[in-house]
Amino acid sequence: MQANAKRYMLHFGGSMLAYMVVLFGSVAWLNGHETGPLVRGLVALLPVIPGLVALWAVMVFYRSLDEFKQRLIAEAMIIAALLTGFGSFAYGFLEGALDLPAIPTIWIFPVMIGLWGLVGCFQKYVVYR
Question: What CA–CA distance (Å, rounded) separates 15 from 57?
């Protein structure tokens, strides 16, 4: 494994571990304490901090790649963003017409990241073979 990939795995993996610890800690704290909205909002946002570190790790890794790999990743992200946007757009119409339940916005980012991975796999093994 290349040095930049090892560094990425260390930084990204560490930030995801920190994210899980902070997430569970903040949820437990919020469930066990009654405070004002400002404190609750700040505690609820604490998991965003290790999430930002993960985004930083992704960008550092992306910049360490050659131009072809950067293009693959960028195209996959664009396609994933478009599919996520169009899917939420279409579901919005169905939600109103068929009285479907609203999907919480917290699911938008995980869906986009999941689609990014799927599109990346599809590209690597089908489009650029």
Answer: 9
Q: Is the pLDDT of residue 128 over 70?
A: no
pLDDT tens for each residue of 29-88: 999 988 899 999 999 999 999 999 999 999 999 999 999 889 999 999 999 999 999 999
Q: Residue written as tokens 């994210």?
A: 19
Q: What is the 3-state secondary structure (H, E, C) of 39-97?
A: HHHHHHHCCHHHHHHHHHHHHHHHHCCCHHHHHHHHHHHHHHHHHHHHHHHHHHHHHHH
And the tokens for 3? Answer: 């040095």
Distance, CA of 69 to CA of 124 (rounded, Å): 10
Distance CA 64, CA 61 (A): 5
Q: Which two tokens stand for residue 115?
A: 């689609």
Whether the CA torsion 58, 61, 63, 65 is positive or negative: it is negative
